[in-house]
Amino acid sequence: MAPQILLRTVFLVCIISVIQCRKHDGKDKPKWAKKDIGDYNEVDMERLLDQWEEDEEPLEPDELPEHLRPPPKIQFDPSAMNDPEQLLQMSKKGKTLMMFVKAKDKYTRDQVEAFTKLWQSALHNNHVQAERYMVDDHRAIFMFSDGSQAWEAKDFLVEQEELQDCAIDNRVYHGHHTPEGKQEARKK
């Protein structure tokens, strides 16, 4: 007798679920959902996307777009007040940052492209991830997805003989093989 009751219950649950899963008629849908998909505008598509993502789990902080990520936690150290670059470096952790790199004028575009590519490879081998874009015959942009790595890259780049200067956040660092760089080294 018990198996028959169980079988009837399962059958009843299946029928109820089929009835509940029926296709909605036009009366239940909002006005924007009754349109033909070809007639959807950006607002309708945004509503559809919101409806699609309604039941999804939230993304991890490192998977979020950069503008939605929580800011990095900076531990204030009073002894670090003497080193503003270190504070700036900590504030750029996890944020995209661009460094403008300028080669000496005596090199051709092909030469500049060759050694900036070599610099990018050397940085990559040292676990510093940077994208390189040529913007002029003697200028390139190095883009870091983790901005705190830009200062490590700067320390490497200023040692290169072909470098004229590099700039991070409007601060210019001259190459050590330039007259300006030699003058800065004497002051230190």
Please state the structural category.
alpha+beta
Give the biggest sheet. 5 strands, antiparallel
The name CATH uses for the topology of the domain at 96-186 is Alpha-Beta Plaits
Strand content: 5-15%
Order of helices and strands: HHHEHEEHEEH
Strand order of the largest sheet: 2-3-1-4-5
End-to-end C-alpha gap: 95 Å
Question: Portion of residues in helices?
Answer: 25-40%
| Named CATH architecture of the domain at 96-186 | 2-Layer Sandwich
CATH class of the domain at 96-186: Alpha Beta
Radius of gyration: 29 Å
User: Can you count the helices?
Assistant: 6
On the 0 to 100 scale, the average pLDDT is 83
Low-confidence parts lasting 5 or more residues at pLDDT below 50? none
CATH superfamily of the domain at 96-186: ACT domain
The best one-word shape is elongated
E-strand count:
5
Protein name: LDLR chaperone boca-like
GO cellular component, one term: endoplasmic reticulum
Signal peptide: 1-21
Subcellular location: Endoplasmic reticulum
Description:
The protein is elongated and about 95 Å long. It has 188 residues and is α+β, with helices and mostly antiparallel strands. The model has no long low-confidence stretch (mean pLDDT 83). It has a domain of 91 residues: 2-Layer Sandwich (Alpha-Beta Plaits). The protein has 6 helices and 5 strands, in the order αααβαββαββα.
